Amino acid sequence: MVAVTDMENYFFDTKNDDVTKDKVYVLIIYDIVDNRRRVKLAKFLQGYGFRIQKSAFEAIITRKKYQKLISEISKYVSNEDSVKVYKIIGKGQVTSFGQNIEVPDEDVILI
């Protein structure tokens, strides 16, 4: 039996953010046939969130960034590929099993 990893068992609330209430949780999973397009998509997605598995990214972003993500993602996808973007608004919980994946802390600079 595989135990729940402590770090990956977390809650989020996109409606209760102190800075803005305009956040969405996004999970992007993909299956890209061509290696070059797959690498380009992964680099593109790193600008929005962080990789949680080889073909999966997650992020908490503003609705404006979400719209930009949706409008630009088709540049990296052909008819033989599959990309799914899940948008979750409000409260949520993530519980992971198995390998513990470290998520780097992001530096935020307000000007």
**Rg of Cα set:** 15 Å
Which parts are unreliable, with pLDDT below 50 for 5 consecutive residues or more? Answer: none
The first-level CATH class is given as: Alpha Beta
How many domains make up the coordinates?
Answer: 1
Mean pLDDT: 80
Largest sheet: 4 strands, antiparallel
Structure summary, number of beta strands: 6
Q: Kindly report the spatial arrangement of strands forming the biggest sheet.
A: 3-4-2-5
CATH architecture: 2-Layer Sandwich
Annotation field: number of helices? 2
Assign the CATH topology: Alpha-Beta Plaits
Helix vs. strand class: alpha+beta
Q: What do you see in this structure?
A:
The chain has one domain (10-94): Alpha-Beta Plaits (2-Layer Sandwich), CATH 3.30.70.240. The strands form 2 sheets. The chain has a 4-stranded antiparallel beta sheet with strand order 3-4-2-5. It has a two-stranded antiparallel ribbon with strand order 1-6. The longest helix has 12 residues, at 35-46. The chain is 20% helix and 32% strand. The protein has helices at residues 35-46, 63-72; strands at 10-13, 23-31, 50-53, 56-62, 82-88, 91-94. The chain is globular and about 40 Å long. It has 2 helices and 6 strands. The protein is α+β, with helices and mostly antiparallel strands and 111 residues long. A hairpin with a 2-residue loop joins strand 3 and strand 4.
